[in-house]
Amino acid sequence: MKKVLAIILGGGAGTRLYPLTKTRAKPAVPLAGKHRLIDIPISNCINSEILKICVLTQFNSASLNQHIGRAYGLSGFQQGFVEVLAAQQTPANLDWFQGTADAVRQHLKYFESLDVDEYLILPGDHLYRMDYRDLIQRHRATHADVTLSVLPVDEQQAAGLGLMQINPYTSRIIHFSEKPEGEALRKMQVDTSALGLSPEQARGKPYIASMGIYVFKRAVLIDLLRKCIGCTDFGKEIIPIAIDHFNVQAYLFDGYWEDIGTIQSFFRANLALAKQPNPLFSFYDVEAPIYTRSRHLPPTKHLACQIEESMVSEGCMLKKCQIFNSVIGIRTRIESGCTIRDSLIMGADYYQPDFERRSTCNHSIVPLGIGANSEIQNAIVDKNAHVGCNVKILNGNRIEEADREAAGFFIRSGVVVVLKDATLPDGMVI
Question: Is-contact 326 343, C-beta < 8 A?
Fold first, then answer.
């Protein structure tokens, strides 16, 4: 794997994840209490012995760049690196990244200077665990010019993905369509039993979808990006052109995969991590750990708490509260009498000086954390939020969509999202 360069696409604005992407890049969104989305592809690379890794960044990239720099300082003796390549304006190019392919093209001279045979293009915002060595070996064994990692999906998932049709005998991709709709979507149905699915499974998942993971031969990617100057996106332009001129193969992935593109999918994926037994994705795989920044935080204190089917990160202070099916992020403080249910509390980036103070609601300024006797259900509380005493975040009116930025929250698909650094005063009801 020393001849493989991983290029992680981390420059998207993540508009469907707004307001979580209001002040941060999509791959920098916190995951599972202490990780960030970018930790998934980087960890998959490290576990696959791919140690030459570049991350392309653009929108709201400060926290993403900082996280990567602090978490992945690979030793020079390993002959590897995790390098951030930010969008930049130059005399020769005054434009920011115009799409996924354009992002790679703008750094193509640097990628050409590296001694590698294949380029592994990865999304920076999906939840899955993959050994890329299997993908690379399949790519080489089939003498492919390009290989796409694919999986069978149902119609609901297919609507937002790139879909393809393949030769069932050779696995060569013969047709590709990026996010088709209506009749064009239905025309992409295939018999997925050719992939090894049972007849029943094939009826439920009649589409073959791209995971946005591509392996290119070095010369092929360079040729495509240089000849198609107007092509800015891999799925919409580069892959269809490659299918017409090169040997483009499909590699079937049969593990758990979640495209965390919306508030609803992000929320659902996080809460699923706390389920027992055997969650669909686990952070407890000894053979393939998910790495992140080491923070050296103290242990969490549970003071007379009831906690069921939940994940609690380190450095927290929990006092006489009830927590059900929730994920609690680092440095979270939850006061006495609180009930947290089906929620994601992202925690804090810092401690207040009086973190171990006694519980009190007599304050002139609402402190960091969740105040006494508050109740939170079906919500995401972003980092550094100040939630006062007796606050009720329940969405009792079952509102699906709402923008209340001035009040410190949004509602997306029925999920209340409390903004980063927001303050909810005592007694507030959502």
Answer: yes
